[in-house]
Amino acid sequence: MKVLVIDPLKCSGGKSCELACSFEKTGKFNLADSRIKIHFFPEELRFVPTVCMQCRDAYCVQVCPTAALSRDTETGVVNLDQDKCIGCKQCIVACPWGSVKLEHNGEEIIKCDDCGGDPACVKVCTSGAIEYVDADEVVLLKQRETAEKYMKFAQEMSKGVV
Amino acid sequence: MLKGFSGVILRVNLTKGEIQREEINEEWAKLFIGGRGYGEKIIYEEVDPAIDPLSERNKVVIATGPLGGTMAPGSGRIMVITKGALNGTIACSNAGGYFGTELKMAGYDMLILEGKANEPVYLWIDDDNIEIRSAKDIWGKTSIESDKAMRGDTHVEAKTMTIGPAGEKLSKIACVMFDDHRASGRTGVGAVVGSKNFKGIAVRGTKGVEVEDVEGFKEAVRNAYGKLSQHPVASQGLPTYGTAVLVNILNSVGSFPVRNAQEAYLPTADNISGETMVKKTLVKNKACGGCPIGCGRVTEIREGKYKGARGEGPEYETAWSLGAMCGVDDINPVTKAHYLCDEYGFDGISAGVTIACAMELYEKGYMPKEDAPFPIRFGDGDAVVELLKLMGTREGIGNLLAEGSYRLAEHYGHPELSMSVKKQEIPAYDPRGVKGIGLEYATSNRGACHVRGYTIAPEVLGTPIQVDRLAYEGKAGLTKLFQDLTAAVDASGACLFTTFGMEASNYAELLKAATGIPYDEKTLLLAGERIWNLEKLFNLKAGLTKEDDTLPKRLLEEPIKSGPSKGEVNELHKMLPEYYQLRGWDSEGSPSEDKLKELSLK
C-alpha cells in the first residue's frame, strides 16, 4: 500500500504540485481546485503542504450519508463517487486535515485520490517534499534519514578521539 | 479569445480613482507574445518617451506572460514596465515570487497604472472585486511590513506587490518588491510607482488559467522538465548553492569586479560564495511560483553583530555588489545588507555599486571628509550596512547615494568612477575578462545588464557550448541571439533560468500549446527581435544616442591588475559596429526602414 508522504522542512513553496494537481483533475490551472495545498508562513519563510492522508478510520467516510465516500481496502484510498454525493458538506466539517473541500465555484466536493496510484503532484516536486512510497518503507526511510544524521554527528563528535 | 491569456487588462487611473477592464489585443499578443513584449508595446503607444519619468504622465504596466499561472517551469514571473526613473530608458524589470501566478488566477494578464493618487493608496484585487484602498497607515513601512499589513487587511492568502521607503522617497535605484523578497530591481521602477502615491497591490484569485491544447501542454511540460533535470546548472548548481554558485566560478576566471572594479579577482571570494552560504547561513531553498529549480535561499545570520536576522539571499549579484565590489568578504554583513535592500526596496546591484563608488570617491579624497558621517572605506561591511540605512531614509550622504552612482560621481566631479552604462550600474561580471558581456552591457536597452542577453552561459559556463571568453570574434552574433531569445522568454512569462536546459523549441512548444498561436523557433526569435527593436525605438525617441552604447572608461582602458584575466581590457569597438550591422541598424544605431518593415514595426 502506497501513501503520500509530505515533509514541510523540504518544501520550497513553488506550488508546482498545486498547478499540476488542478491541471490533472480539471484540465485547467487553478490553485483553488488543487487537492494539495501549500500553506505559507511568510514570517518564518516556511511552506507546509497539506493533502488527504487517506485515513484508515476516515471521518469523512463515516459522516457521509450516501456512501459517496468509501475507502478502497486494497489501495487504502478514500474515493469519492460524484454520482452519489448530495453536497451536504459534512465531510468538509468532519475532516481533521481540511483536505476535503469545494471546488472553486462552490459546486462539487473534491478530494485527493492519489491520481489512481500515479500522483501528478509528485512528478513535479523537485524538492523531495512530496513522495509516494510504500507505507512500510516510510518508517524505514525516516529511520535511515535520522540514522544518517546521527552517523555524521557521531563522526563529528569523535574527531581526533577515535 | 486566445487561451493562455486570461484575456483581461486592468487599467487603473489613480488620478480619477477609476478602474476599467480592457480586452487583450490579439494582434499585439501575436506580435509581442505578452509580458515584457506586450507591456512595452503599451508603454510605447501610450507614454511620450520625452517626459520626466517621475511625472504624472508616465505609466506603469505590471504584466504576466501567457505561460504565467501554468505549470510551465518558472512560470511565476511578473514584469514591471515603465519609463525608468534611473535613466529614462524603457524599463522592464522582472521578478519571481507568487504574485504573477495569483494575478493570473484572479483573471488578469496585466495592469496599467496611470495618473497619480492624491493620497497614498493600494489596490486590493479579489477576483472580480477590486478596490482602491487608502495606504495612509502603510506608507512609510518597509516592503516586508507592508506585505504583512496588506495581507492582514485583505486575506491571509493574498500575494503582494509593494514598494519600500526607497520607492516612496523616489530613490532612482528603488525597486518594486513582490511577496517580501523578490525584486523587480532595475532601472528605478520603484520610484515611478512611488511617484504615483501607489504603495502596492494585494491579489487573490480563484478563477484559473486555461490552455488551448491540454494534452499538448502536458507533453511540452514533460519535455521541459526532462531538459532541466539533465542540465547541471538547473538541476544541481542552482538548487544546491543558489545563484551565488557563480562567485567562485567568475572569480576563477578573474572576471569578478572588486573594489569598484579597480581589480577583478578576490583571493578570499569563497567567503561570500554559495558554498559558504550553505555552511554558514542557509536554512532552506525557496522556489517561486511553478519553479522546479528553487534557487532562492532562505537564510539566517548565525554569528556576529547581525546574529538572529532572517530573510532571503543574498543572490550572486548582491553577494558581489554589497560584498566584493565594496571590498567586503564577510558573508554576515553582506547578508544583512541584502536584507536591508529588500526591506527598503533598493535594487541590490545598483545600491552596492553606488556604495562602492562612494568608497572610491572617499578614499581618493574626491568626497570631502565632512560629507561622510564616518570613514567610507573599502572592506568595511558595517559601513555598507549603515550607508544603506542612510539611503533608505535619505539622510545626509544617503540622500545623494539614493540617486545612484552616476549622479553621485558626477556631483563630486568624477563621473568616470561610476561603473554604469546609461547611468545604470553594472552587474557582477567584469567585461574585461568576458568580452561578449561587455557588448551586452553597452547595448542593453535599459542600461548595463546581464539578463538581457546572458552570454556568460557560453563564454564562462560552457552552455549550450563553450566559446572563448577572451575572443571578440563571433560575440556580436552571440549577443544578438541571446538578447532576442531572452526578450521572447521574458515575454512568455517564464524565468530566464529555465534557459539552463530548455531550448527555443521548448518555449515555442509550450507557447503553442498554451495559446494556439503556431510558434516555432523562428517566429519566437523574430518576436524577440521585434521586442528588442521596439525598445530601441523608444530609447531613440527618449534622446539616447550611439554615445550611450558604451562602457565605463575604466573597463575600456584600465587593464585588470591581477588574477587570471590580468592585463585585459574590453575593446568594445571590435564588436559594436558588427553588432549594429547584424541588427540591421545604421552606423548610428538606428534601425533601418527595411528592418522595421521586416519586424512589422512599420
Q: Helices, strands, pairings?
A:
The complex is a heterodimer of chains A (162) and B (602).
Chain A: E1 2-6, H1 16-26, E2 37-41, E3 46-50, H2 59-63, E4 69-71, E5 78-80, H3 90-94, E6 101-102, E7 109-110, H4 120-124, E8 130-134, H5 135-157
Antiparallel strand pairs in A: 1-8, 2-3, 4-5, 6-7
Chain B: E1 8-13, E2 18-23, H1 26-32, H2 35-46, E3 60-63, E4 78-83, E5 90-95, H3 99-105, E6 110-114, E7 121-126, E8 129-134, H4 143-153, E9 159-162, H5 165-168, E10 176-178, E11 182-184, H6 189-195, E12 198-204, H7 214-230, H8 232-241, H9 246-252, H10 274-280, E13 282-286, E14 296-300, E15 310-312, H11 316-321, H12 331-344, H13 348-363, H14 381-393, H15 397-401, H16 405-411, E16 420-421, E17 424-425, H17 435-443, H18 456-461, H19 475-492, H20 504-515, H21 521-541, H22 553-557, H23 576-583, H24 593-598
Low-confidence stretches of chain B: none
**Gross CATH architecture of the domain at 53-111 in chain A:** 2-Layer Sandwich
From the alpha carbons, calculate the radius of gyration of chain A and give it in angstroms.
19 Å
Tally the helices of chain B: 24
Strand order of the largest sheet of chain A: 1-8
Task: Provide the domain count of chain B.
Answer: 3
Range of helix content of chain B: 25-40%
Q: What's the number of extended β-strand segments of chain A?
A: 8
Instruction: Name the largest protein-protein interface in this structure.
Output: A-B, 28 and 45 residues
Name the CATH architecture of the largest domain in chain B: 4-Layer Sandwich
Given the C-alpha coordinates, what overall shape of chain B results? globular
Q: How far apart lie the N and C ends of chain B?
A: 26 Å
What general outline of chain A do the C-alpha atoms trace?
A: elongated
Regions with little confidence, pLDDT below 50 for 5+ residues of chain A: none
* Annotation field: number of helices of chain A: 5
Helix percent band of chain A: 25-40%
Element-by-element helix/strand order of chain A? EHEEHEEHEEHEH
CATH class of the domain at 53-111 in chain A: Alpha Beta
Task: Report the β-strand fraction of chain B as a percent range.
Answer: 5-15%
Beta-strand portion of chain A reads 15-25%
CATH level-3 fold name of the largest domain in chain B:
Aldehyde Ferredoxin Oxidoreductase,  A, domain 1
